[in-house]
Amino acid sequence: MEYTKELVKFCSDISFEKLPGDVRHKAKLCVLDYIANIYGSLELDAVRSVVDFVRSLGGPEAATALGCGFRTGLQNAAFINGTTAEAIEAQDGLRFGGNHPVSAVIPAVFAAAESMGRSGARVIEAIVAGYEAAGRSAAAVHPFHTLSGFLPTGTCGTLGTAVAVSKLMGHGFEKMLNAIGISGYLLPLSMAEQLMGGYTVKIVQGGQAASAGIMAAGLADRGITGSPFVLEGTALKGGFTQITVKQEPKPERITDKLGEHFSIMDIYFKPYTACRHTHGAAQAMLELVKEKNVKAADIESIAVFTYAIAALAVGKGVPDGGSFVSAQFSIPYVVAACLLDGTLGPGQLTERRLADPAVIALSRKVTVQPDDALNKLYPDKTASRIEVLMKNGERLVKQVDIPKGDPRDPMEAGDISEKVRFFAGSRDRKKIDRIIDAVMDLDKAKNIRDLASLI
Hints:
This protein starts with a helix and ends with a helix. Helix 8 runs antiparallel to helix 9, helix 8 packs parallel to helix 11 and helix 13 runs parallel beside helix 16. Helices cover 51% and strands 8% of the residues. The protein is α+β, with helices and mostly antiparallel strands.
């Protein structure tokens, strides 16, 4: 089966006019959520350091560094915008692929579309095509890609970005096939070790993928060729799915229900600034705080029960001197912050909050362990249960089977609009409302530059 060709054939045929209404709407929600993440990420010192460095590189004013107040070179803008999509860890995601396509696809689409003066309708069809390529390639290697040491946001995000930008360039089947083939050669290793170690370079994986995908599409536009079997490979055993998993890949997922079901419809949104594996525990804790008025001083201990992958990936605490990346991937920290602050947003990831003795002390009262019953629900449900033992002997229990933001308990336009306002902080509220309105009317925009200049 020529999986790469089948996928590209479908993506090259996507047109805004033929997209179902719910797919168009979902693409708008992905853009709206992306803007929230830009504003939230710019609250972090590490992000501002990335922005400052990339700005110092100079370059032609081809595209906007969104939210930053300046324009720069095309790939540099995509790198910044991918970093701000990723860093706050509140980005959209695909549960069936373990990846976050927004971190690469939309930053590249915005930069490229702005430089080319494309309309909102063309942006929407490019996003849908990019999510299709990123999501299906990630599904083919999930979860063994991550278990083999790679992060699919960076790797599969590059594949999706190449297809999306190729779409914006007006490429037909042959050039788009070359674009995705070239992207398989240029994509980053995107090492999971960096994330698991809490190193802040993790935040640039979306930016690197966005930049590489633009390069791949541009090279294809100039006649450079890439393997037409880049995903499944050949007898040479050098295809993407062959070399990035230690177990057997599932390349049939690349074309499963292709044309019947769009990958973007499986995308979840995050209400909290942490790894999705922490969200069941976060939501359960916040609900207990609201329902029972739980106070930290009255707590003896907190036990979190969850599925095995979550316990492995995010069950550890934040080490002394750990970064915000460590906090984003720590159920003990997330639970402590939710209990003390009653929320989990950009403010809970600042250096000052991470160093707060009260958060540190409470997080050390939290234990995380896998639960056989919850593990049996996975992957259909990403369930977590919190059991809070009070000093008076009372035990408070709350379980969340499907965290908010899942397509089965979705965040709608109103929810995401509130997320934008929350993450925007002290920015001008009237301007933020104009941005929200412009995104929801994206299909009517004649030139994406107008929205880019607003952000």
